[in-house]
Amino acid sequence: MASQEVPTEVTTLTPAHLAAEVGTFDLATLIEHQADVNSADADGWTPICVAASNGHSKIIEFLILNRADINQARNDGITPAYMAAQNGHTETIAVLIQNQADINRAAATGITPIWMAAQNGYIEVLAILIQAQTDINMANVAGITPAFKAAQNGHTDVLAALIQAQADINTIEASGMTPLYAAAFQGHSDVVEKLIHSHADINKAENSGWTPVCIAAGNGHSKVVEQLIRIQADVNQATYDGVTPACIAALQGHTDIITALIQSQADLSKADENGHTPINNAAKGYAEVLEQLTQNMGEMHQAADDGKTRILHAKALGHMDVIEKLKKAEYQRTEEEEKHVQAKSIKEVLSDGLAESKSTLTRAVLMELLASLELSFQEGVLEKLFDEIDQNTDGTISVDRFVDCVFALKG
Question: What pLDDT does 6 receive?
Fold first, then answer.
């Protein structure tokens, strides 16, 4: 809740200002002695603005009777009605409205009285302003509406009142966020439920492509994710960087959200623009998430675009628990996936060995290196490879050709 504002330049205040601040009718005596009821201090505070800020309704009525300007704003454009709404002074805002205060006049920031009431959760003030037919959709300079602020701050009753008054719940602010996105970001599940029932656009993304379900997944708001999944939110819609809800949930280690996404049949293999899949992200230190994902995925050694396999990535970061999970899940690989992993391993070992010894892949070198691989081949495969080596004029074979031959001749 916002605290009450009081003038800071106290040396510039007149006795009328001070009387309005404390709510004393010494003001009457001052007026009898020709006090200026519309005098402003250095920041533009008038006696009626001070009274409105402090909720002194009777003083306001007295000032109005003595021709105080109820719409005279401070230097920053803030009016008495703004001050009353900001501080939740229900009776004061009613008095100002009864005396024709301009309730749609915005401050320099574009903020109106109802905007402040929505932000701070003052439902009674908001109801009075709605009844007075204020503009419920007027946004501030950043495009943020009263409905957006109510959703962002978790004021479900305020949002409900705005929706009942036909507020637009799909407006977007400057960065593309909607009220639903703001509620999902904060994890306000009651607000999310209200917006869902009011037909908010559940897949509307902000300017970077983040949807409500994606940001809720990233921030660990499992209930919100489940709410959005229930009404068929797109769980595979990625940001403009290719980040899916599963990618970001895995990166943050949110096991409950990964469970919900798996149950909704989210694509667990979809990679971001850097080639990182949910499993790549989980390998950075989240063993439980990794176990969930590997139970639903076959490929364990799929490399990211940076060339690191998941086990190597986990090893580089020192996550031994993750490595154990990866190793235990290797049995789930299909035959084709096993061939891919084995081929990659052979190439790495042979390439490293040849580079270290500055050798080429001759028959003798091949025999020596194969012993270190502990590979088993079907009968006759190696003989066929050696025949090919012998047929080549230089008596060698390339690593790529060797691997291709192995997997062409096996099985």
Answer: 47
pLDDT value of residue 189? 97
> Cα dihedral sign for 241, 244, 247, 248?
positive
Separation between Cα atoms, residue 162 and residue 239, nearest integer Å: 30
* Closest by Cα among 89, 80, 138 to 114: 138
In three-state secondary structure terms, 52 is helix
* Dist CA 169 CA 159 (whole Å): 9
Contact residues for 63 (Cβ-Cβ < 8 A; gap 6+)? 20, 27, 37, 47, 48, 51
CA dist 410 and 55 (Å) reads 87
Closest of 47, 109, 35, 53 to residue 72, by C-alpha = 47
d(CA 164, CA 381): 77
Cβ–Cβ < 8 Å for 38, 69 = yes
C-alpha–C-alpha distance, residues 205 and 194, integer Å: 19
> What is the C-alpha to C-alpha distance for residues 207 and 172, in angstroms, rounded to an integer?
10
Let me know: does 91 contact 125? Beta carbons within 8 Å: no
C-beta of residue 28 within 8 angstroms of C-beta of residue 58: no
> Rounded CA gap, 361 and 51, in Å?
92
In this prediction, residues 173-185 reach a mean pLDDT of 97
Query: How do residues 197-226 score in pLDDT, each as one tens digit?
Result: 999 999 999 999 999 999 999 999 999 999
Cβ atoms of 117 and 129 closer than 8 Å: yes
